[in-house]
Each structure stands twice: as C-alpha cells, then as structure tokens.
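quick one, two chains, predict together pls
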Amino acid sequence: MIALDVQTTTRQVFVNIAPWMRIVFFIMITASMLVMAWQLEKRRRLWRTGERPGFTRDWRVWLQRLTVYALAQKRVHKKSLGALLHLLLSSGFIVLAIGTTLLAIAYDGPYYFHHGWYYLIYEVTLDIFGVAFCLGCLLALYRRAWSKPPSLGHNWRDWWLLSCLLAIGLTGFLVEALRIHFTQVQPWLAHWSVIGWAIDVTFLRGLGLKTAQNLHLASWWVHAILVGAFFVTFPVNRFLHTLTGPLNIATRPKRPMGALAPLTMAEVEESGRTGVAELRNFTQSQLLSLDACMECGRCEDACPAFASGKPLSPKAVVVDLRDLMSLGGGNVHETIRDETLWACTMCQACVQECPVLIGHVDLISDMRRDLIGEGRLSGPPAKALQQIGNQANPYGRSNTDRLAWAEGLDVPTVESNPDFEYLLWVGCAASFDSRAQKIARATAQLLQQAGVNFAVLGREETCTGDPARRIGDEFLFQERAQTNIETLGRRKVKKIVTPCPHCHNTIKNEYPQFGGQYEVQHHSALLAELIAAGRLPNESKNDDEGPITLHDPCYLARVNGETEASRQVIGAAHDPEYREMPRCGKKTFCCGAGGGRMWFDEAPEQRVSKLRATEAVATGAKTLATACPFCLNMMTDGVAGTPGAEEMKVMDISELLLSRQAK
Amino acid sequence: MTQPVEKILVAFKSVPDPYEAAAPGDSGSTAKSVINPFDEIAIEEALRIRERGETSEIVGVTIGPSSIDEQVRAAMAMGVDRAIRIDDARLLDPYAVARILRGVIEKEAPQLVLMGKQAVDDDSNQVGQMLAGLLGWPQATFVSKIELLDNRTRARCTRETDAGLEVIDVNLPAIITADLRLNEPRYVSLPGLIKARKKPIDVQTCQQLGVIVEPLTRLSSTARPARRSAGTRVESVAELVIKLKEEAKVL
C-alpha cells in the first residue's frame, strides 16, 4: 500500500506562493544573478589586462587537478577546525546548490521527475547536507568570534557572508517545517524531510494552520531575498573562491615546483623590461590567481620569512596585488617593498600549502626580476651575482681552485676517467666553502669505497646558475645553464650525482628548458642504493653520534619529494634513538638559505636558522644531520648560540656514513 | 628655492678583476676587467645624489683604449648619463691622469668631481689629490658620507681616517674621493648592459683636449709574491713557545 503511495509521492512546488509572487521572485533572482554576472565580468576584464595568457590549455590536466584539488580538496584536508568546517560548508553548499538546480529543472523542464523514491531520497539528502551546511557556518562563526587564528584575517564582509549563509540555511528548514505543518503532510512522508519534521513536532506543535501559512510565506520571502542578496555580494567576498579557486586550479601553468619560468631576450627586447613592474606585466593566469585567494592564511603560517619577523607574508603579497588589481592596476613596487621581495627564501612552503594552487614564488620571482633589471639590488647578494658572472661561482674564487677540496684523494676527473658512469657534480659550496668541502670529500671517498665508476668535471664545472635565477637575474642563469649543458654534452654525461639539492633541482627541473636532459640523483639516493646493495655498511653508529635528527632540505624533500633516502643513509629505521622534528619530510622548514638568501645579510634576531635550530634541539638529538651544503652552513650558524645546542654537531649524511665505514 | 648641482663628473678606471688570481704583469692573463671598485662606489654615490634630486647630469670619464669600452658600458648601465673615454693606450702615472682629467674638467665645468680613493691595481691613491692641486679646488678624501648643504654650494663630508671619523665642509666645486663604506653599488644585469650598448661613447684624444702628457714614471719590472709555505701543527703550548723562540725568532 505504501509502495503505491511512494510512486505518487511529491510535493507541490511554490505551494502558498501566489502566481504574481512567483513572477516577482523570478524577476528578483534573475536580476540578482545578472548583477552577479556583471560583477564577475568586471573581474574577468581585470584578469584580461594581463599582457600574456599563461594558461594551461590541457583538459586532461584540468580534469585531473579539479578531481584532486577542487572535488577531493586534497590541500584543504588537515587536522584543524578550518578543514572540518570547510568540508561541512563546501559539501553542504554543493549538494544544496545541485538540489535547488534540479528542482528548477524539474519545475521548468518538460519532464517532471520530482516524485517517488527520487523525491524521498532528495528530501532526506538535502536535509542532511543542510545540517552540515548550517553546522559549517556556525563553526566558521565560532572561529571568527572566538578562536581567531591571526593568519586568517577578518573584515566586516565575513560577518555578512557567514550570517547570510546561515540565515539561508535556517530559513530553508523553517520554510520546510511550516509547509509540513500547514499542508498537514502524513507523518510517514514527513519523516523523510527529517529536519523540517523534527522542527514541526517540537517547536510548531499547536500552531494554528492559518498562522503557519502566513509565517511560511514570510520566511519563504526572507529566504528568497537572502539568496538574491547572496548572489549580488558573491563576487566581492571570500565566497568568490568557490568559482575562482577551481578556475585557477585547472588552468595554472604546468611546471615542476622547482622550475621557474624561462624568459627570452626577444621578450625583453620587445617589452623593454625583464620582469613585472606594472601589474599588467603579470600573465592573465597570475591575475586570476589573485582572485582565487580566500585569505585562509595557510601560506603565512608556513612561511619562514614571516615566522622570523621579516616584512613578508605570502598572503599579504597576493592580497596587496589583488587590491592593486581592483584599483585597475599600477606599479607593483609602489605596493610591495623591495625588502619584502628579497625576504623570500623560495622554500615553496606557501606554494605547497595553498589549497587553490596559487604560485606565490612565481609572483615574487617575476617582481624580483624587475628589481634586478632596474638595478635595485646592492651589497653582498649583488657581489655574489657579479662573481657568478666573472668567476662562474658565487664565492668569487678562481675556478682554477675547483679541485682544492679533493687534495690527496686521487679523485678521478673526466680527463683521467673519460668512461665514467656517474658524473659527481660537486657544486660551488662543496667546492669552495671550507666546511662544505668535507661533504665533497666524504661523498667522493664513499663512492671510491663502494667501487662506483665516477668522475668530476674539475675546473670545467661552474655554478648551475640557481642563485642567479632565484635572486632574479634570469640571463646570468641562462648563461651558466648554456655553458654547463654544452660541457655536459661534450663530456657525454648521462648520469649525474650531486650532494647539493639546489644543483640537483636546477639540473633536473630547469636544464630541460634549455635542452639538457640527464638522469640526476642527489647523493642521498645513490648512497642509499649502495647501502641496499651491500656495498656500503651503515649498521653500527659511532658512540659519539648520540641521538640523531634529520633536517630535510626544502629543495630535496618538498620540491623533489625525496625524503626516504637520507633516512636510509643514516639508518633511521633501525636506530631506536632516532628523533623526528615536528616539521619533517615534505613538510620541512627552511634553513633560511634558499632563494639566494645565502648571500643576504640577515639580522641576528631574524635568522630562520635560529628557529629551526631550536626545533632540532627540542628533539633532544645530539647530532643534526642534513643533506645540503647550504643547510649545513645555516644550521651550523643557527645551532651556535642556541640554548641547549652546545653539544650538538651538524653533519652531512655523507660525513656520518663515512665515519661509520672506518671501523 | 634650492638649485641642484648642475653636473657631477665621475672619473673611473678599468682594472683587472681583483677576484681573479692574476699577479701584476701576468702575460696572457684571462682575467676579466671591471670598473675599479672604489670608482664604482663613486658612480653609485653620484646616482644616489641624482635620485635625491640634487643633480641633473652625471658625466663619466675614463682613460684607455677601446678594449675598456665594456667598463664604460657598465658605468652607463649603472645610470651615468653620458660617458667620455680619452683614447690613450699608454700606461699612465697619476700625474699624467690628473692632468688629462683637468683638461676634461675645464671643458665640462662640473660642480662636483667624484672618484675612488685609489685604484686597486696600482694602489697609488694620488689622482684625486693631484687633481685638486692642479685645479686649486678643495678636496675631501677617503669619504664615507656626503651631504650637500647651503643651496648645494657646500659638501659636508665624513672622512675615514686612522684616528676615527673626521667631518669636513668643502665649498663646491670640489674633488671628493670615495672610501669603501660610502655605499654599496647597485648590480647591473645583462639586459641593462645590452640597453647601454645603444648609448654612444664620446671618444676624445689628448690632442683634442689640448693636453700633452708624458708619464714621469715607468714600469720597470713586476714579480709575484713568494708562495706562502704550509703551516705546521704543534702538539703543545710548550712546543709552540720553543718554535716561536728558535725557528721564528719572534720571542
């Protein structure tokens, strides 16, 4: 009997709404949507002021990214109130929006399908997600009113948005309850509209039918007007990201995290500039990305420059540029100070955190390039660039001293061993910095002990150009890249191993832009392979090592995803004393040397390395292992003078492994 | 109403890159040439004075053959408005350089002349002083700070001396020579240099200036410094004292 009823089960759409009211309603909703569309079109025109498009036009990439980052919201998930409320709000909003659209189709379309089992499931689904939606609004309001995370930021529009959304949700339920009440829906059917039914039987008990009908009309109009108001204000508040976020996720340029965009001399000659000076010099894709930001503040929370008290917040960069865009554009350097741009270590933590895939580092890099073109850099980093230009290394040492580190080791060179399998790319730091030279020595000795057929370039090796490119001197970088690619080709190099994550990243991810394709490994990966193959023992720790912790280099772990090899080299898995820092693996924290910051003066109270050293000390470790000559340098400085770190040794993984071979 | 200094003249010299390990007189040295670092500081100071709106024109001047044009371009890429190269390939001594510069200054009539305190290749540290003497102008040497005062008719200069800082006022026109701490010069990138390639260099000869100079000094020979021998490690303080006494004979 019930089965029969189910087939005909439905509800009358627009019950209690007179025909003229429906017309007013349609006009109001259409008008508010037109206002919304017009405002969105204004934003789109602002994005279009970008001189070049810069979009990815590959729908397979779009689909894949939208699934991972927009639908599954991979970047949003973490154990936090913000992530939970986002899940509630977004799932609620999406389901309610789809439900309302389906109803509109059913009402206006040629085929009325809003009945039967479909209707019952529809009712219960929308009620459940309506609860999620309201709960999400309440949690978001709680977060703004009480927990107030500083990086979130706040303005009056947020109160409007959340109250408006919550009121839409609550009036929706109220309308449902009053409809059930005055149309006297049979209880078995009313149960499917679970929330409306619950409100009806608890709060509306004994309410007169006529009163309920009038109240229904009133709350229906409040609900409808709020929806209209929501449409009108949608493009000017945080909710805009529901549209611009997925748009940016789909279309942002496709490039490895570790590769900056190349620039050609022809482009410079045509435009007369080397980077971004005016907002319109950004690509349309970059301008769109500014509108994708909903100011969640995750980038700021992850930023080492911000944490160390420097005048940079990746979020503020995006928001300031967006405000400039809203004003119709202008000179970016009048909005963002030079010190702000120089403060970035290009550790990519902000880029990794951003749920809508904004490329903060690309924005900063483009603006840095203009500062370089305009001669706005001086002091030690300027000297480093000059020395990369003159001596082909940032240390200003004669390239004839390239093999000074190898004294007494009988290291094979490409001349003495032209049939090498691996090229050991030493890098400038391990070639010239007296402390880092020990990394080169340890690595070469380990390769010798394991019987690896390798060679070094010696004086033919020059800076990869990484610091030049990251400081903003693109053409100095390209000069180095071309020279090195030519050398590597001449020496028929196929496999490269290097103890420097920055050389590793640049050769692996950036040289392909100029035709250099090699199999590049960080020394941690090759050493781990040699250990696994039984060619280098690493079981027994030395007595003086004590508990070990590992500092993951950003350009190895975060940027290139390599986190396990270093741990294998130091034997973390079978070392009961091994400690992990809270920020480890791909979520590591910068040492402060990236982005060319190695060559900038850093005020003692603003040292990133200090923050990281404190974190390392807190693990109780006595040895801080790392896998990068720059991290080694920075962490040695950071550890010095950090309370509790008096006994702490900072060592490269290759040094630790070598010290375990001697026994 | 303050008037800007109408024209600043900056003299600079092309020297072998001090970071390249080349000894004086090395034949076939591949060392690149650069603007003498102290002169680069002088150029930077002129640019900063212009950025403060205190001058309207910066003229760079150097002496040498066309092979130093790369450094002239670098000066223009930094921001020098125009550059004069006195074409003379001879090895000139400071007095000859000062007399040539006097010729240029009499023609250009700048209100302020800036240059480095010395060139890092010959370390003479004489040109600025001689030039002031030849012109009868006041001079401020080893300057680490410059302020233009009294409607830009006077320069207050902080000098770095062995005894400490000395502040002196000189009436313009004057010669000021730059010390290391005056400023940190800006970096010039490749596109900047390429842009500067389009600017013309005003090449003049001593004859055109009406200056006849013959160097009064002559380079007779150069020699590399002796290579430092490796140090030794001592086991104890007692051994160190013995070695200092007997081998080094310093105690």
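The interface with chain B takes residues 265, 268, 274, 372-373, 375-379, 381-382, 385-387, 390-391, 396-398, 400-401, 473, 475-476, 479 of chain A (CB under 8 Å).
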